[in-house]
Amino acid sequence: MTRVAVLYGGISAERDVSLSSGTQVIAALRQAGFEVLPIDITEDLGAVIRALTPKPDTVFNALHGRFGEDGAIQGVLDWMGIPYTHSGVRASALAMDKVAAKAVFGAAGLPIAKGRLVDMAELEAADPLKLPYVVKPVNEGSSVGVEIIRAGDNRRVAVARSWRFGRHALVEEFIPGRELTVSVMGDRALAVTEIIAVAGVFYDYESKYSNGGSRHIIPARVHPDTYVHALDVALAAHNALGCHGATRADFRYDDTAGEPGRLVLLEVNTQPGLTPTSLLPEQAAHCGINFSALCAWMVEHAQCRA
Fold this sequence. Notes:
The structure is a single chain. This protein has helices spanning about 15-30, 45-50, 70-80, 90-95, 100-105, 120-125, 155-160, 205-210, 225-240, 280-285, 290-300; strands spanning about 5-10, 35-40, 60, 115-120, 135, 145-150, 170-175, 180-185, 190-195, 215, 245-255, 260-270. By secondary structure, the chain is an alpha+beta fold. It folds into 3 domains: about 5-85, Rossmann fold (3-Layer(aba) Sandwich), CATH 3.40.50; about 95-110 and about 175-290, 2-Layer Sandwich (D-amino Acid Aminotransferase, Chain A, domain 1); about 115-175, ATP-grasp fold, A domain (Dna Ligase, domain 1). The longest helix has 18 residues, at about 225-240. The radius of gyration is 19 Å and the shape is globular. It starts with a strand and ends in a 6-residue tail after the last helix.
């Protein structure tokens, strides 16, 4: 019987999300017939290494956020010679760094938003882009810290002064329209989902993880050419970063002037959520892959990159 260690929890701002993902994964893998070793990750790296000794056959990485999907834990697992799910060090680090990922997407000719890295002092002094614009932490996930600055709301200075995600932020043009997402499994883009935020003004942390926080329309009701384009761009972004296993690409779709509109790639998530409200399991189910089979597929496609 394959022995799978599930890493979950972690020390990032997304710990609660990871605990939810991990709990779901543990149950699903046991249902699929694997021997499962749950490991709640804390600041004690030595304890993690001890928990992984003797080595399991595979690690299921259910961590989210910094130190879980930025290449840090992936490097530890490579050092130990243990196969693990999802992407390796380089792809994980690139995808987590929004500025670096944006450069990769641009070089690959993929549609991206106009924007640049901005020092907080610059943001406090003046608008760095034409209003409205979006302010994002460079290396956080799940929309943690994302702010939309609109004309007349007088929030720019307060956002700059209360910023807790380092000295810099990625500032991008605000793309009106709709929120779309596409999950990728290996070499296959699954489906396009439209996300309608209910709990927040955009698809923020609360909308993503609270019950009833958002509505998902699958397949998305968009122009057929846009649907195919979104599938193609998601797979191209997955490959451009060198991702492995499952990922999810997030888009804005500006159809305010009619369809087909402008499709803009925002980011690729190398550790898509596996919570009860998450999008990857929903898209997999739409394609006939239940949650247990999805998790088993990830284990079966785990690799050691060392």
